[in-house]
């Protein structure tokens, strides 16, 4: 470790704590959402306010440490080694304020969507959250943020209106379209490479209720259901977002009773419109006769956990890809690799519809303006031991091979392993991100989960 000054010099400047390997809560503090990840930073700073963040950034810079900002640890796996790195974990920055009339929200950088969406719903509003209420607004927004309303309203990053952060020189900045617009642009897609964000403000949308739910089919009907779904989605309007998954639930208490321990092929939908119209749009799938159908007119809060993502930390391995439209042969290859009869142990294989606003760049958009492709694929398995870990890896690899011919790109938020971040951007965007990085963080103090090095 390179530290010149002892860690106590930082603690003395902060209201919040600094946790190190000699503290009894070291393991609990550095634990992240994926229990298979073992983060080993030099120390974890837990700032309580912006001044604490400044103290932590100043200390790291002066001590030869790098800084990795973190909010909830849902994408911590991507960091790789955190040797000589101070983890600045903003979990205690928990401010939430909703201006319903202006349709604007301000949150501290540690806030999870679960503290925002229900409040908005009470006001007949919805934010652009994703599938899990446990995910943090900060990391989600800084990486893009693709959720239920994305085909209508785009990525969450482009609904962000202002960001407050501490930059590499220890300066508190507030950036928006008019103030330091290059930095504002880079932050919206560039993750934690430009500073420690302390607060985010964003626009939300009027949604009193919507037609949403899940149709459950027997797992064995995967091919038939996925064929119908894949043919249907290109015909749907931007107001409809539909996902389809192969789910194999564990027999665990966090899984709701009716599906606990069961395996299903499911089709989800969230439609900004009436029940009559929504039913008509989804008819080709519903005509297949789901075993269970939860679709109804619901307030936007119902989207919070509709995807049934695991609410608590667990060990998992994951793969993801952005795909073109899947032709019949593609669906067949996917089902052969991880569907019924394959022996797949994967808990989830999820296809999300893209397109609509996700494919249209709006004026003033950030670095992550759009997502390429027609579908997003994410699959994960939960290994219990070495043997099941091997099986999970094998099936994830065979899924990757099955969809390779249709692969058109990658989405940073879903990539949870160390990688070359240039793969997420086109050449011009990548070059501009590196230039902004050189301008604001020439010495590469900040280590975002997906690293952007400064331009030479
Ligand atoms: C169960 C689950 C469901 C998900 N569903 C969706 C979904 O529907 N749509 C979607 O788009 N993504 C989804 N994701 C991916 C998720 O958006 C990313 O993992 C995201 O990076 C998580 O952000 P976080 O703040 O919760 O996690 P963290 O691991 O805390 O943050 C991830 C990264 O964001 C940056 N960051 C976080 N906080 C700060 C800060 N204060 N200052 C500067 N940088 C910061 C850092 O680079 C950090 O490494 C899901 C992930 C999981 C595990």
Topology:
Elements: H1 8-11, E1 17-19, H2 26-30, E2 43-46, H3 50-63, E3 66-70, E4 85-89, E5 96-99, E6 104-108, H4 117-122, E7 125-126, H5 137-143, H6 150-153, E8 160-166, E9 172-176, H7 181-190, E10 196-203, E11 205-206, E12 210-218, H8 222-232, E13 240-248, E14 263-271, H9 275-286, E15 292-293, E16 296-298, E17 317-323, H10 328-338, E18 348-353, E19 375-381, H11 386-403, E20 407-409, H12 427-440
Parallel strand pairs: 2-4, 3-4
Antiparallel strand pairs: 1-2, 5-6, 6-10, 7-11, 8-9, 8-10, 12-14, 12-15, 12-16, 13-14, 13-18, 17-19, 17-20, 18-19
Helix pairs in contact: 7-12, 8-10, 10-11
Bound molecules: flavin-adenine dinucleotide.
List keywords for this structure.
binds flavin-adenine dinucleotide; alpha+beta; Vanillyl-alcohol Oxidase, Chain A, domain 3; Uridine Diphospho-n-acetylenolpyruvylglucosamine Reductase, domain 2; 3 domains; 12 helices; globular; 5-stranded antiparallel beta sheet; 456 residues; 9-stranded antiparallel beta sheet; Uridine Diphospho-n-acetylenolpyruvylglucosamine Reductase, domain 3
Helix fraction? 25-40%
CATH fold label of the largest domain: Vanillyl-alcohol Oxidase, Chain A, domain 3
Structural class: alpha+beta
Parts with pLDDT < 50 across at least 5 consecutive residues:
none
In CATH terms, what is the architecture of the largest domain? 3-Layer(aba) Sandwich
Content of β-strand: 15-25%
Q: Name the CATH class of the largest domain.
A: Alpha Beta
Distance between the termini: 26 Å
Number of domains: 3
Helical segment count: 12
Main beta sheet: 9 strands, antiparallel
Rg over CA atoms? 22 Å
The hetero molecules present are:
flavin-adenine dinucleotide
Shape, per Cα inertia axes = globular
